[in-house]
UniProtKB/TrEMBL annotation:
CDD domains: URO-D_like. Transmembrane segments: none annotated. It comes from Clostridium grantii DSM 8605. SUPFAM superfamilies: Thioredoxin-like (SSF52833), UROD/MetE-like (SSF51726). This is Uroporphyrinogen decarboxylase. GO terms for molecular function: uroporphyrinogen decarboxylase activity. Residues 3-331 form the Uroporphyrinogen decarboxylase (URO-D) domain. GO terms for biological process: porphyrin-containing compound biosynthetic process. It comes from the Bacteria. Pfam families: URO-D.
Length: 451
């Protein structure tokens, strides 16, 4: 059984010879070829070279072509802000100025579509017989949030028909991109829809469920496997996601793997995840990563329908030796840390500097947004945007800061606060919005209480 067969059989809920390993090497592959994220994601040659480097180094069972949820919104006219070590972020939301009727469906010649489609074709020619190739598309609800910005959350309450019109449009965009990818030789369409974890189950049923189920059916009819990727605490909507009938679900460490394993067995759906991106993969040692992989496999492996993978796109600076160690362990080749030739030191975290505590002043409010990184995480970005949007209404009465857990100081802060889900929002040190992006009305109500 080769790597490609191992992944595809797992997505068919069939027994395989060992747990498949799929590192989500997105912008981290740019680091492998000594390149920043912007240069990497704007060139088919660079994407091909990065994926080939990841294939040689990590010896995976599957790899994504490109992990970038901004390809579709960019082609639709949204303004992007580029970063050196993250995928770009959407800064201008086109439907704040136009209506959905003004938008045209992207073609294979628009934006960066030609770049990723060419990269997919060339990677498929080189690796398509060896490993499973994932083509990532922006999920319909996340694309709707890119197009509408934080207005999406208010309009779900005030103008649901408008949101459904946008969802009809974004679902068709996802279908079109999937069909384009289906001609390149990829094996799996991964619908990456992180924003679905930021809404209630009721809103999921109304604004996501029918569209995602329709999209999954369409992709299967193209002859491809389909998986849904999400991040954040998807627990409340995970069973509903299963009922949209994907072949697989992937999530991060906010979801209990044992709980997901029960749903996988119930619905015969493959699950993927959920290696911690920062505490283990970014800041841990090779041995800590091996121990984590071993624990995950003991919980979810040994049965059909499990793929070991990170919780999301691996951070740009994720140490190569950590990823290699996991790969060697999965393949039964890990012997000792002597195989790693690295000068990295794994510091004692007792000396880590932490973010200062918030001092609450009478008549004022201080908002702290705990994020993975608002530059590279869509839910984190839109939680931060929801705060920035209301700031002009309050003048100097409201201040905010973003505490990123992509630093040891951020991790220490989260542990001190006892925050378990990301993104999260605290107002005057009270946890108010936990993995749930508020509407403008909801956020102002909580601020006004404290003023």
């Amino acid at each position: 059984m080769n790597s490609k067969e191992r992944v595809l059989k797992s997505l068919s809920f069939e027994t395989v010879d060992r747990t498949p390993w799929v590192p989500y090497a997105g912008v981290q592959t740019a680091n492998l070829i000594d390149m920043n994220a912007e240069t990497y994601l704007k060139s088919a040659d660079n994407i091909v070279n990065g994926v080939l480097a990841a294939y040689e180094l990590y010896k995976p069972d599957g790899l994504p072509i490109a992990f970038d949820l901004q390809i579709e919104p960019e082609a639709l006219g949204c303004e992007l802000r580029w970063s050196e070590n993250n995928p770009p972020a959407v800064m201008g939301h086109i439907l704040e100025e136009k209506s959905v009727k003004d938008l045209k469906f992207p073609t294979e010649n628009d934006g960066r579509y030609p770049i990723v489609l060419e990269a997919a074709r060339r990677i498929s020619e080189k690796l398509g017989d060896e490993i499973a190739l994932y083509a990532l598309i922006c999920g319909p609800f996340t694309l709707a949030s890119h197009l509408m910005g934080t207005n999406l959350f208010m309009d779900m309450i005030l103008d649901p028909d408008k949101v459904k019109e946008v969802m009809d449009f974004t679902t068709q965009v996802a279908k079109d991109f999937s069909k384009m990818y289906s001609t390149t030789g990829v094996h799996i369409i991964a619908t990456v829809d992180p924003m679905v974890t930021q809404i209630s189950p009721d809103h999921f049923e109304e604004f996501v469920f029918p569209y995602l189920k329709d999209l999954n059916t369409y992709i299967k009819d193209l002859g491809l496997k389909v998986t849904t990727f999400c991040c954040g605490d998807a627990t409340k909507c995970l069973e509903l996601m299963c009922q949209t009938e994907p072949d697989g679900l992937a999530f991060d460490e906010n979801v209990s793997l044992s709980f997901a394993r029960e749903l996988a067995d119930k619905y015969k759906i493959c699950i993927g995840g959920n290696l911690p991106l920062t505490t283990k993969m970014l800041f841990g040692s090779p041995m800590e990563n091996v121990a984590e992989a071993k624990s995950q496999i003991e919980i979810a492996g040994g049965k059909p329908g499990y793929i070991l993978s990170p919780g999301c796109d691996m951070p740009f600076d994720t140490p190569v030796e950590n990823i290699v160690a996991i790969s060697q362990f999965v393949r039964g080749e890990f012997t000792s840390l002597d195989v790693f030739k690295s000068d990295r030191q794994y510091e004692d975290e007792k000396d880590v500097q932490v973010f200062e505590d918030i001092i609450v002043e009478s008549g004022k409010a201080f908002i702290e947004i705990i994020t993975l990184d608002s530059e590279g995480c869509a839910p984190c970005q839109y939680m931060l945007e929801s705060v920035k949007r209301i700031l002009p209404k309050y003048g100097d009465k409201v201040q905010y800061r973003e505490s990123l857990i992509k630093s040891k100081a951020g991790i220490a802060r989260v542990m001190k606060l006892g925050v378990s889900n990301l993104p999260a929002m605290l107002i005057n040190n009270d946890l108010v919005f936990d993995n749930l992006i508020p509407s403008e009305t909801e956020l102002m109500k909580e601020i006004d209480k404290r003023l």
